[in-house]
């Protein structure tokens, strides 16, 4: 694949120094290669976005909505190819890849509707003082850089791309070097729809490409989803330019199970929260807080459920969990298994890499994990669950909140008043009650503390790409 970058409405060859190897994680083998974009090509992409901005931001909301609906329709037309690519490059089971695609389609459809509902650019503002009039305008923030991760490609980019385009921004999208292929669909769709050149640009590459984009003085905003370590670098780059950022970063989320729960139902919610996408999600509920009265019944059932989970190659087997997406992530998770052995943690299930081709690990459960354990405090990004017991509601809230992260949490209880009370007390951006992690485009996404800055999805996702201007006139 040589024409792997979409700049100013054209597919071009990469001119960077890095060769990107695209792997099948179920086999641990590459199946494609592409050359990274050069720093000069990143500059060309930003320049193209800057040149396209005046015309694009002045298109009508209905025109932009029509393009967004076109993206949704075109994604649907490419359904089987995109699902197969998700399975091959990410190692996602089919049902997960299908949900990812449906999520991306729904996101473009939702922001098409929101674009059509945008108020007129001018809205009068009542003033208490006589002799003046005032009006406010919502304007696109400008040219935005979008940097997206490898765990939910296509989805995370839709969460950023759709509201940015709806607001009237032009964009430069940088996919992860681990999963660079699937975002190519957005460039292909832009071609098919006749999207004006420069409105959407896609540059692939590794750290050099990401740094060139985040440091570029031609951007008006950066939106980044990924690790805290890279997020801090992105924030540093933004601070040098004094420009806004949206950061969706890591998590070490809690799932709190009270002793009035149905054990079987609780096990289902717990397993889903730690094994979906092989635990490679910032929202993984990797800290299990289980009340004393149910712990002895729940932990053995949970152990069996994890041991019986079907793990394998999604392209050749009926599986519930696939491999880790990259060798680097596999080595990281294996390192935490070694740390658990060094710390003497009690392993009830898993705790090891699987002896087969590819980057597979076993779904893992550790019991009675100390609060100072690295496995309790650090984001692992794999199917590794740590459990602790609690006695009272107050203790559960305190331990759930005792984290430098604050992305999500889950509360499981038959007492809905208590569940709602606990949800209100948790210091996170999103709470599920008696549910798997169902994410809807109408709701917000983002966290508190070290889990990031700003919100995506819902009307908050659109406002992240809008700037507010007031015009005040003296009537005298």
From TrEMBL:
Q: Does the keyword Oxidoreductase apply?
A: yes
Q: Which residues form the active site?
A: 248
Any one GO molecular-function label of the UniProt entry: oxidoreductase activity, acting on the aldehyde or oxo group of donors, NAD or NADP as acceptor
Task: Recite the UniProt keywords alphabetically.
Answer: Oxidoreductase
Answer yes or no on keyword Hydrolase. Answer: no
Q: Which residues form the Aldehyde dehydrogenase domain?
A: 11-471
Family assignment? Belongs to the aldehyde dehydrogenase family.
Name by which UniProt lists this protein:
Aldehyde dehydrogenase
Natural source organism: Pseudomonas putida
């Amino acid at each position: 694949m040589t024409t792997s970058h979409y700049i100013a409405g054209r597919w071009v060859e990469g001119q960077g120094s890095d060769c990107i190897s695209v792997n099948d994680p179920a086999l641990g083998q590459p199946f494609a290669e592409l050359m990274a974009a050069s720093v000069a090509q990143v500059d060309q992409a930003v320049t193209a976005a800057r040149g396209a901005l005046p015309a694009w931001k002045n298109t009508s909301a209905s025109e932009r909505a029509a393009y967004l609906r076109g993206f949704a329709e075109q994604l649907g037309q490419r359904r089987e190819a995109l699902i197969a690519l998700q399975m091959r490059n990410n190692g996602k089971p089919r049902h997960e890849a299908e949900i990812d695609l449906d999520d991306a389609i729904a996101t473009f459809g939702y922001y098409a509707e929101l674009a059509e509902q945008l108020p007129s650019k001018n809205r009068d503002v009542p003033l208490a003082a006589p002799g003046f009039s005032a009006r406010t305008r919502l304007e696109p923030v400008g040219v935005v850089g979008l940097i997206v991760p490898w765990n939910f490609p296509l989805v995370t980019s839709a969460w950023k791309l759709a509201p940015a385009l709806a607001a009237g921004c032009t964009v430069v999208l940088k996919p992860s070097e681990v999963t660079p292929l699937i975002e190519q669909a957005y460039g292909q769709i832009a071609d098919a729809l006749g999207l004006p050149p420069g409105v959407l640009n896609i540059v692939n590459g590794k750290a050099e490409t990401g740094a060139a984009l985040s440091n570029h003085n031609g951007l008006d905003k950066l939106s980044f989803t990924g690790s805290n370590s890279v997020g801090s670098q992105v924030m540093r780059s933004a601070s040098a330019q004094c420009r806004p950022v949206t950061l969706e970063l890591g998590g070490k989320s809690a799932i709190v199970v009270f002793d009035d729960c149905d054990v079987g139902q609780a096990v289902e919610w717990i397993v889903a929260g730690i094994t979906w996408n092989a635990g490679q999600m910032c929202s993984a509920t990797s800290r299990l807080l289980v009340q004393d009265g149910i712990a002895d019944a729940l932990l053995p059932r949970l152990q069996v459920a994890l041991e019986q989970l079907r793990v394998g190659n999604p392209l050749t087997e009926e599986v519930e969990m696939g491999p880790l997406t990259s060798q680097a992530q596999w080595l990281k998770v294996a390192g935490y298994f070694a740390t658990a052995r060094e710390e003497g943690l009690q392993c009830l299930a898993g705790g090891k890499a699987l002896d087969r081709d590819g980057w597979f690990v076993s779904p893992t459960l550790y019991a009675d994990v100390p609060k100072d354990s690295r496995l309790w405090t650090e984001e692992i990004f794999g199917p590794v669950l740590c459990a602790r017991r609690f006695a009272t509601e107050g203790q559960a809230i305190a331990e759930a909140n005792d984290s430098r992260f604050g992305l999500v949490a889950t509360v499981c209880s038959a007492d809905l008043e208590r569940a709602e009370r606990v949800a209100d007390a948790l210091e996170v951006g999103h709470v599920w009650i008696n549910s798997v992690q169902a994410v809807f485009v109408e709701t917000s996404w983002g966290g508190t503390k070290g889990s990031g800055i700003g919100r995506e999805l819902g009307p908050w996702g659109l406002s992240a790409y809008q700037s507010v201007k007031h015009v005040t006139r003296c009537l005298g």
